[in-house]
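@channel sequence for tomorrow's demo:
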Amino acid sequence: MDRRRMTAIGVLVAAAGLTAAVTVPSFAGEEPRRAAPAAGGVAPEVLDAMGRDLALTRDQAVERLRTERWAAGTVTRLRGELGAGYGGSWLSEDGATLTVAVADPAGEARVRAAGAVPKRVSRGVAELDAVKTRLDAAGAEASPDVAGWYVDVADNAVVVIARPGAEADGRRFAAAAGSKAGMVRVRTADEAPRPLFDVRGGDAYLINNAGRCSVGFSVVGGFVTAGHCGRPGDRTTGSNRVAQGTFAASSFPGDDWAFVRVNADWTPQGVVTDFADGSTVAVNGSTEAPVGASICRSGSTTGTRCGLIQAKNATVNYAEGTVTGLTRTNVCAEPGDSGGAWLSGDQAQGVTSGGSGDCTRGGTTFFQPVNEILQRNNLTLVTAGDQPAPTQPPAGGGETTPPVTAEPTPPADDTGCSGQVSRTGRIAAGRTQIQPDGRFYRVPDGTQEACLSAPDGARMVLELQRFTGGTFRTVARAATADGTARLTAETQAGAYRYRVVGLSGSGEYTLAFSAR
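structure tokens (generated this afternoon):
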């Protein structure tokens, strides 16, 4: 972990054909009928969770996210312009006002011109970070009654959290670290942060068939999660008890991140699941959200919960050891949620580390920022950007799509791949494509066959998906071996599509398929 990490706010960017000659692969062009459309480019599941936990209407949630996008870009620009005079920034509780602290009065005009509210402070954020770094270095000397410490940009101070009755311990710790008077404030809170794991149930993953944690975000070759969930070499299984992968890297304490490399039976996808109801939300990047921004967390125990970012670069003094560089929130979490995903709009933010309280009475929860995990391990986030939204066949009972004309059967290539329909495309690791042409086709009951020819040196997965329950679900899967993936499946009548997933390498592929 970079001990020099600035507390300064990052940026939030919230989101937002075939000619044939057989009746079988008939390609639809109608628009989908989905459970609920996205509003303002934000998935309805996120808006619903924000409405529940932040008491917002959908319109208010969309407006708040719009303001947060503006704030993120504004802060990025002002931070560069103000230099050492930048003292941090935050959104008001209602998300309507952006305040930027300035240690140099000359910067106030720049802040006003940008549409934000300036606040004069004594110290730039770099000076506060330096104080916190000294506390981090002395962390081993902290009393167990000192729960953690973080930079509070709104108070222009470093805050040490002490449990009730242990305020003197907090002051002694700050003094021992050489903190100057007035720069560190001791606050009392009944917090006892702990890693959240070891509760069974829900859609999660198991470690060595024992402890349970939650998947964070998909990356090329696997997923990221919390470091306290496992150590390198530990084996994981899905909640279905099917072998899943192995912890390839892990760091805890100090940091709280891990990378699990999955086997060929599992395909990383650029979505986050609400484990409570099975719905999914797209992930389209990992731009960092500011202090004061809304944030939602998904975990295998409590599903999706939302709140606000309270502070960056927080240190937590767990019983197992000190972890630095976390983000502090007022979102609740419970055991088993550890490792789960944090989203701001559609942007990945981090993985659950630990916290205090529960989702009955509320609490404080910390997450490990995801960008550091990606950078430290040279990983690539899998996003949904190349995954078109599901297209749904029209309603109408037993209505069928009229027959369409067929293309001539393409000749087999040098891998022997051939079929009634052929499509080509270019793909890279961590990307996906939907075929044919981003749409779907209809078939009666029968056998479906497909052959995927991958570019040299590339590893790919081919998935056959059927539209059911309001979304496309995978019904058959094949991974490439010696450059080719072959798939045969007995399927029911319905609407289908193929999903091509790049695991490693890049280049042009050919997909040939038939249905009869």
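heads up for whoever presents: The CA atoms of residues 16 and 41 lie 4 Å apart.
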